[in-house]
């Protein structure tokens, strides 16, 4: 049985709008509708979509914060909203834009409080804390009140906080938002190691598609509250009709390069941009260009996944 | 089952201990806040005492008798406010998304909300009310039953205010910002019960008995302690009903709380 099982899930909100003095009009908004997917233990899944697509609403239902309007929902065999506190022991949640830590307390106190809340045995707690503090390089910050931490330090603190009780599932909502490149890289490395060593299942919502590329074998794209794509990242490229780009620097300025299987998109002096299908091999193309022209340099640009998804949305809508 | 009941209490204790430790790590600011809170509260009863320099009785009750009423309701709301005062901030928790965080923790939400940022600062109110209460004690002709009724009164009074705090804070699940509405009933109820109910019209006394049973916080048990019958003519057995009133209010409060949590719709991401 899958670890997360969602079938025909729906959640509606009643939205009241002002319609003149003291009058309100009501309308029903479907934040999530007819959503179906399942996730096996140990998977790392990217959950992406535009703002307002229903990502956060889904996560809130999966964690038991929101009660679904209708549909089936099982996480680790439990019904989240009814067995919320039982489920809470088995999941970790990180909301990137908010902290779970106590603002006025040093990190160490927050962690101790969480140990009590989750009833983590002393020895296990110390092992986990030591390990995460080392991996996430938090040693110097343990006695600093959370409000004095930098965003990156706070995020690492939040991730440690979400993992102290050895959850089977870790939900990450925009974990790298606002972090610098180095912090992002370190965080991704840490999450990969976590999945490899402990088999923790990861569900990640993000706007940073590099997070997805670095971490997720599988992507679920959601739009207007329902899943519009579920599969591999490569498949997403293919479906979105995405292309890769071969950048060719010729020795001299020349006419547009003419080779089969690629077309020239742009010419700028000796440099030319050729696009070709993302699922085609670059090797024959490179060989064809090199044999017919005097080439100074070559490079390949991977498709921008943002474009791919935009493409997908416009097809779906 | 025992575990289900004990665990939340133990968890509440753990969290409260941590907040106290954090608070005491700034001893000077803590001491100043407690003294300040005591001074504000002290002036409160002084105003009533000054009133008595020009009158002998109020609604048929003397100063010490009123001190008894004042002390009983003050200790009650003080204990409730100290123990679970944070429940008033539920609207803030909803707005800031803190409630979402709490909902992902394996401890009942009410325990987390009540213990969040626990502060001993509120002890000022209990101290002041206790002083007034102790000063009033000689007015009672003490018997073992009256001692028992007095102890039960203080427990029920705390419990009843606990229920009122929770009940009216729940409104914020729907409106997200109406802590003043809750204050009207909790602190308002406290102010009403600082005076003998005989100063109000009979209808008010009945409403405070049967609709919002705040009169059980001190009025009925104090009538027993003072050996009086109800001036409004209600039966004497009501004087022993404070624990029932507290239980009723808490039951309603917990039901409304549960409904509020289930209807909770969270905020945007």
Your description of this structure?
The complex is a heterodimer of chains A (317) and B (269). Chain A has helices at residues 55-62, 84-88, 107-118, 122-135, 151-163, 181-198, 209-215, 233-239, 283-292, 305-316; strands spanning 4-18, 24-39, 44-48, 70-75, 91-95, 169-173, 201-205, 218-223, 226-232, 243-250, 263-268, 271-277, 295-301. By secondary structure, chain A is an alpha/beta fold. Chain A has two domains: 4-238, P-loop containing nucleotide triphosphate hydrolases (Rossmann fold), CATH 3.40.50.300; 242-316, 2-Layer Sandwich (Alpha-Beta Plaits), CATH 3.30.70. The two termini of chain A are 33 Å apart. Helices cover 70% and strands 0% of the residues of chain B. Chain B has one domain. With 269 residues, chain B is an all-alpha fold. Chain B has 13 helices and no strands. Classes of the chains: A alpha/beta (317), B mainly alpha (269). Chain B: The chain crosses the membrane at residues 30-55, 67-87, 147-174, 204-225, 237-257. Chain B: This is ABC transporter permease.
Number of domain modules of chain B? 1
> Quaternary status of these chains?
heterodimer
- Which class of secondary structure composition applies to the elements of chain B? mainly alpha
- Overall shape of chain A: it is globular
Separation, N- and C-terminal Cα atoms of chain A: 33 Å
Number of domains of chain A: 2
> What is the count of β-strands of chain B?
0
What shape does the CA trace of chain B take?
globular
Domain ABC transporter (chain A): 15-249
Main location (chain A): membrane
Subcellular location (chain A): Cell membrane
Keywords (chain A): Antibiotic resistance, ATP-binding, Nucleotide-binding, Transport
């Amino acid at each position: 049985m899958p670890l997360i099982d969602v079938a025909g899930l729906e959640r509606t909100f009643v939205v009241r709008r002002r319609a003149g003095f003291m009058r309100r009009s009501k309308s029903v908004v479907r934040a999530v509708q007819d959503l179906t997917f399942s996730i096996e233990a140990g998977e790392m899944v990217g959950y992406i979509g535009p703002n307002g697509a229903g990502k956060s609403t889904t996560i809130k239902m999966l964690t038991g914060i929101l009660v679904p309007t209708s549909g089936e929902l099982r996480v680790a065999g439990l019904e989240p909203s009814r067995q919320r506190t039982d489920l809470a022991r088995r999941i970790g949640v990180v909301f990137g834009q908010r902290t779970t830590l106590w603002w006025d307390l040093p990190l160490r106190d927050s962690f101790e409080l969480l140990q009590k809340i989750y009833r983590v045995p002393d020895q296990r707690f110390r092992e986990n804390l030591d390990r995460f503090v080392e991996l996430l390089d938090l040693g110097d910050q343990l006695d600093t009140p959370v409000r004095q931490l930098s965003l990156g330090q706070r995020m690492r603190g939040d991730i440690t906080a979400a993992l102290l009780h050895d959850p089977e599932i870790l939900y990450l909502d925009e974990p790298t938002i606002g972090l610098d490149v180095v912090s992002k890289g370190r965080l991704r490395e840490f999450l990969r190691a976590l999945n490899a060593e402990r088999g923790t299942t990861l569900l990640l919502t993000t706007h940073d598609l590099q997070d997805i590329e670095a971490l997720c074998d599988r992507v679920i794209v959601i739009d207007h509250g329902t899943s519009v794509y579920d599969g591999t990242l490569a498949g997403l490229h293919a479906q979105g009709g995405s292309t890769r780009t071969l950048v060719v620097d010729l020795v001299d300025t020349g006419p547009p390069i003419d080779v089969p299987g690629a077309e020239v998109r742009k010419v700028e002096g000796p440099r030319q941009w050729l696009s070709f299908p993302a699922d085609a091999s670059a090797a024959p193309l490179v060989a064809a260009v090199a044999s017919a022209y005097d080439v100074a340099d070559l490079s390949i640009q991977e498709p921008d996944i943002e474009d791919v998804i935009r493409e997908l949305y416009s097809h779906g809508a | 089952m025992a575990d289900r009941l004990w665990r939340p209490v133990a968890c509440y204790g753990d969290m409260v201990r941590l907040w106290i430790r954090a608070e005491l790590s700034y001893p000077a600011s803590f001491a100043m806040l407690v003294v300040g809170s005591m001074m504000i509260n002290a002036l409160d009863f002084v105003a009533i005492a000054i009133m008595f320099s020009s009158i002998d009785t109020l609604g048929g009750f003397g100063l010490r008798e009123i001190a008894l009423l004042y002390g009983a309701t003050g200790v009650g709301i003080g204990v409730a406010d100290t123990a679970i005062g944070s429940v008033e901030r539920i609207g803030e928790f909803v707005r800031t998304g803190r409630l979402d965080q709490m909902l992902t923790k394996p401890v009942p939400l009410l325990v987390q909300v009540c213990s969040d940022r626990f502060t001993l600062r509120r002890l000022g109110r209990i101290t002041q009310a206790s002083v007034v209460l102790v000063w009033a004690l000689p007015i009672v002709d003490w018997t073992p039953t009256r001692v028992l009724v007095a102890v039960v009164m203080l427990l029920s009074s705390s419990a009843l205010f606990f229920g009122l705090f929770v009940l009216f804070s729940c409104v914020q699940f729907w409106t997200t910002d109406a802590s003043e509405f809750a204050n009207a009933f909790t602190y308002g109820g406290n102010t009403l019960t600082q005076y003998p109910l005989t100063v109000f019209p009979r209808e008010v006394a009945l409403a405070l008995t049967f609709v919002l049973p705040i009169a059980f916080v001190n009025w009925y048990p104090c009538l027993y302690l003072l050996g009086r019958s109800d001036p409004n003519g209600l039966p004497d057995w009501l004087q022993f009903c404070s624990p029932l009133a507290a239980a009723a209010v808490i039951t309603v409060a917990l039901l409304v709380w549960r409904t509020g949590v289930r209807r909770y719709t969270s905020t945007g991401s």
